[in-house]
Amino acid sequence: MGKNYVDIENDHGEMLRYRKHANGRGLIAHGAKVHPSAVIEAGAYVEPGVQIGAGAHVGRGVWVESDAVIGPEADIAPHAHIGAGAAIGGGAKIGVRTLVGAHARVAVGSLIGDDQTIADGEQVATDRRGLRLAA
């Protein structure tokens, strides 16, 4: 049986320890809080301070930066990038290769398509078809 963690050096030369999440084997940094029912797929990275709610799904190759919050039942498609301090509401869906900037907010139940960019600090709400609602 192999080890259940990996040490990775960050951009500042600090060593961070990541453990493999039981559901999906994605890497969870020390200090992140991930609900046991969430699925973090292999190849995903969850940084320190992140909170991921019950039933959330984080796809292969996703990078969730520090202090981001992903609500319950949210679905983050493969290769998306969730910026530092961003918040994804419960039940929201984030598309493949989509970038959610630092401190951006995606409302509960929103649908963000593939290859989209949500700017740093932007607040977005959509209907179930992905059409943006007025702020």
UniProtKB/TrEMBL annotation:
It comes from the Bacteria. InterPro entries: Hexapep (IPR001451), Trans_hexapeptide_repeat (IPR050179), Trimer_LpxA-like_sf (IPR011004). Pfam families: Hexapep. One of its GO terms (molecular function) is transferase activity. Gene3D superfamilies: Hexapeptide repeat proteins (2.160.10.10). The keyword Transferase applies. This is Transferase. The lineage of its organism: Bacteria, Bacillati, Actinomycetota, Actinomycetes, Micrococcales. Keywords: Transferase.
